[in-house]
Predict the 3D structure of the following.
Amino acid sequence: MCACVRLACRPTFYRVYRKKSTEGFQSTPYVVTLFSCMLWMYYAFVKSGAELLVTINGVGCVIETVYLAMYLAYAPKSARMLTAKMLLGLNIGLFGVIALVTLLLSRGELRVHVLGWICVAVSLSVFAAPLSIIVS
């Protein structure tokens, strides 16, 4: 199911590849989804017996990385710079802070619970974000 959701963007990226242009598409959903996959993988490594989460989100990380690489290859310079800043800020900066804080300030089951709630909150925002179009 998760792989199907992530592969739903395949026609869009086929069009980007075919036209060699991002045509105004935004990279934000892909950056945030990569961030979510990374968090879930971290959670799975901390929690015992979560091999399926590693597999699903590992595939998700690969798919989102391919999408972002294609986006960076065909986007105009301003969009590329914004995407690079988001990747650095969210997927390296915020992910690093979350990993560091959870490693230093929590232990055992508390760490698993804190990470679980962070992952749930990020996942909800990933899947609820497209609904913001309705409000606009």
